[in-house]
Protein 1
Amino acid sequence: MDGKMLARIGAIIFIAIAITATVIEMIREEEPARVRSAPELQPEADPLRLTLRRCQRLGEAVTSDAECLSAWAESRDRFLGRSPAPAAPAVERER
């Protein structure tokens, strides 16, 4: 077999595979699109998210707002998968 004959056989095999793939694609039935209902798209109201949105609008004043600082700490803990740190016991100082 010479090179021309091998090239022709390769081309015929390639065309046969292409035609087969085209026919399979044409006879394949379309799956109906799944439609999600509206309640699934809307997450439940998250009080932390609402607090973070309020803090976002405060601008630089957020650094002195204790509620915002604790909300950011809770958000960071959720993101990192850590459980919130237990509250430190109050230590009385002697003067």
Protein 2
Amino acid sequence: MGYYGRLELKLKAQEMRRGGRSYNEIIVALELPKATVSDWCKDIRLTKSQLLKLYQSKKAGALKGSIIAANRKKANRIHETEVLYRQGIKEVGKLTKRNRFIAGIALYAAEGTKGGKSCAFANSDPSIIKFMVDWFKEFGNLEVKKFRAALWLHDNLDEGKAKLYWSRLTRIPAANFYKTYFVKNKNTSKKIRKNLHLYGVITIYVSNVLLIRKLMGWIGGILQKPWYN
């Protein structure tokens, strides 16, 4: 590049700087090294309004960059979660009858009652409830008419819809549901609840003293715990 060509570039760079353009904008527009632009424009003083505009532009760019980075991180996390979920399903594989038997005992040990003359299992997850109803039918040799159920519901939710939902899922007749227990919904709370149980929590009841005793034995077998402990 000749002298006049370089001088023209210098004057253009200085003109852009006086107009309030940032060094990065000048570098990109004129395809110049950062050191050159810095040297040519070092004596140019910007007005307060120009400096404020550059600051706001830089701040907006940084904010945009942080949003892009956060979205990229979120997308990676979602992808990783999906991969691990599919991997988990593959590792479990197809359940045998014994697998289902052991899984049901473990779930009951965690969420079921351990005393009295009846079995009771509570949860809000439809998949878990469906699994346990089928499990009681298969390993307790029970018919659906032997089941009873009760709901735990916030008072701002629709009891009729909740009963219909769980009745269809479990095949337990609505007539076999005990009185619903309502809990006060805390509208004034500032805490944001991530898990809203639209259909409440359901408890499945099976009145069978022999089954509950056998269940305690099954749990003891899993834990290798003698009955007299």
Protein 3
Amino acid sequence: MLNKTISYGLFVLVISSLLVSCIKKEDYPDIPRIEFKSFSKINNGLGYDDKGLLVISFTDGDGDIGLGSQEIQPPYDTASMYYYNFFITYYEKQQGEYVAVNLPFTNNSRIPPLWEGDGNKPLKGDIQVELYINNFSSPYDTIRFSAFIVDRALHHSDTIMTPDIIIRKP
């Protein structure tokens, strides 16, 4: 009887090991990777465009993307470039060439912490950010954005570029 119980226990152990080894564990580099997913304009009901939604997909091997609202000590303080962790540059197509334009406001933002528990686990998902898209002081109606993210270890992701966006001016 004891021999049967040991054999059954070993059988269950072997089957369990096989099942666990079949579960694919996600493995991503610790440096974040991003890809452009979509861009859509938000209808404001006024006949011109002023905001849009940029969606990117991301992966991060150590899952350290995000800053809490209370995290304002160096290097994440307001005097540092790393106060933000989602960096967005606005471009206008002027005489056929794209030119980076410094707007009177920033589209950069802070991605909140995306991990649960103690972190340090691979992350994969989408990030959506609302952007101002209409430079009202400019006559140009074709724009695009570049974007990259930075994780807590200050690893910079690759940079993505949106396709052309045609905006309706007032």
